[in-house]
Request: fold
Amino acid sequence: MTRKIKVLDVTLRDGQHQLSHTLPAEKMAIIAEQIDNIGLDSIEFGHGNGLGGSSFQYGFGASTDLEYIKTVSSVVKKTRLSVITLPGIGTRQELQMAMDHGVQIVRFCTQISECDIAEQHIAMAKKMGFEVRAVLPCASMLTVAETAYYAKRSEDFGADAVYLLDGGGYLLPDLVYDRIAAMKEALHVEIGFHGHNNMQLAVANSIAAVKGGAVHVDCCLKGLGAGAGNCATEIFAAVCDRMGIETGINLYKAMDVAENYVKPIMLKPIEFDSASLMLGYAGVYSSFLLFAKRAAERYKVDARDVIMEMGKRQCTEGQENLCIECAYDLAQNKHSSCVSG
Amino acid sequence: MKAQRIKVAILGPGNIGTDLMMKILRRSKYLELELMCGIIATSQGLELARQRGIKTSSQGIQDILKNRDIKIVFDATLASSHLEHAPLFRDAGIVAIDLTPAAVGPYVVPVVNLEANLNAQNINLITCGGQATIPIVHAISRVVEVPYAEIVAVIASKSAGPGTRQSIDEFTQTTAKGLVELGGAKKGKAIILLNPAVPPMIMNNTIYTQVSEYREALILESVNEMVKQVQKYVPGYRLKIPPDYDGKKVITMVEIEGAGDYLPKYSGNLDIETSAALAVGERIAMKMLHH
Reply:
C-alpha cells in the first residue's frame, strides 16, 4: 500500500465526552502543544458535541468555543487544526471565529440520511476558505448503496472529504469495508472513517476502512473518547507500521504524549461495561453513555433497558434528550404493570 | 347585511399552505378562503383548492393585490419571498400572517401575546419549535425567574422539507429569540434535530429551564394551565413529561400529534404552525367583523 493514511486526532474533542466537557482551555492547550509534535495530519478540539454544543442538552463546556479556539490555535504550530459542528446545534456564525484564528478544517456532522441540512454550511465554509469535510453518522443500518448515495450527495454539496462515522461502535469489519469501498467507488474525494470501541472493534474497523480505500482515520490518544472510547492513536500507528502503512506518526512520541499528558486528565481508565457494550450492540451513539446512565438512575430503571429502547426508537445523533424520555417511559410502564399486576 | 366572514388568501400552496387551507375549510368560523395562490400552475395544492371550488392563481402575489375584498393573507412561501411581499401587503392594507422565518412583524404565539398584537399589520409565527416551546417557557417564567431556557425540537425527517433543511440556522436563531422575547427567559438557545426513524415519530420538544428557585406546585399548575390553553387550538399538544427538577434545571417535554387535515399525523411540527396561523387569523377576523 503506497498511500499515506491521514490521521485526525480527536482526543481533545471526542475525549471531552468522557470528561463531560470539563477540560478547560488552558489545560487543553498544554496537551495540544504536545500533540503537535506527533506527526499527525490534523488535530480536532473543543466541546465534545462541537461548536455550539455547550448546553443543558449536552453539558456545558468548561470554556467557551472562542476560548478553546484562541488558546489552542496559539500553541499549535505544525499540525493543521479542525473544528466540528452539527447543523441544528452550532450555526455558521461560529465558523468566523475559527477562521480568524487559523483553523483550516471544518467538519459538518449530520445524520447520514439528513446530509442535506449541511448543504448551505458546506457551501459557505468553502467560500470562507476552509477545507470542508462531511461526517456522516450511521447508527441504524443503511444498505451499502444507500450509504454511498448519501456520501455522494455530500460530495455534490462541495465536501472535500466524506467520513463514515460509526458513532455507536456498532459496525463490524466486513460491514465497514463494504461501505467504505462503495463510497470510494462512487466518490472522487477522499473517504474517512471514525470508529468507536464499544465492541472492541475500533482498530479492526479502522484497518478495514483503510483496506476499503479510506485515506482519513480519526483516532484518540489512549482511545480517550465517548462510550468505550475510540481507535487509539498510538495503537493504530503501531498496527499501521507493522502492516507497512505510512501514517507519518512518530510512535514513541505518540505513546509518550498519551502516557504523560492524556492519561493524567482521564477521570478513570477507558473501560467497557454492560452499558457501553449495549451501545455497540444496539447501535446507540457513544456520547449517550453517561446520559443514559444518569437518566436510568433518576427514574430507577436499568441503563441497559434505556439503551435498548433508544436503539428501538432509532435515536439520531444529538438526541441525548431521548435518554430522559426512554427512562421516563420505562419507569411509567414498570409502575403501571406493578399497579395492575 | 354585514358580511359574516372575512375574505382571506393563502400564498404558497405547499404542504403548509395546503394544510392551512383544509383547516380553514373545515373549522373556520370567521374566515372565507377567497384565493389560493402560487407560482406553479400544476402544484398539488392549487389542484386540491380547485377541487374544493376555491379560486386559484399561479400569478403569485399579483391576484391577491388586485382583489379589494381580501383582508388577510397567509404567506407560506419563503423568508426571502415574504420580505418582498410584506411592503406590498402593507401598502394594500392587507394584514399579513407570516409563516416564514422572515419576521418583518412582531413574533406572536396565540396563547402568549395575540391579544396585544391584534392591530399589527404583519404578524410572524416564529418557528414550529417556537410555537411548541414558548408557551411552556412563558408558563414557567410567569411564576419564577428563568435566567436561561434551552429547547430541543426533534422532528421526523419526513416532516422536514427543503424549506426547513435550508434554514436550519435561522430556525435555531429565531426560536432562541422567541424564547427570550415571548418566553420571558433572560437567555435562550434552540437545537433542532431530524430523526429518520421509521415509522416517523411525532414532534417531540424538550424544554430545559434554569430557574431562580424551584417552586414545584406553582410551576406545575402554571404549565398545566398553559397546556390546556394551547390545546384549544392545537388539540394534539400533549404534556409528555411534566416539569421535573433535577437540582439544576427543570425539564419539561411536550409532544405534538398533528390533526391530519392534509399532512400526516406525525407532522405535528407543521400542524402547530398551521393551527397557530388559523388561531391568529380567526381572532383578527373576529375583531374586523365587530368593527
Notes: The domain at 6-265 of chain A is CATH 3.20.20.70 (TIM Barrel). Residues 321-340 of chain A form the longest helix (20 residues).
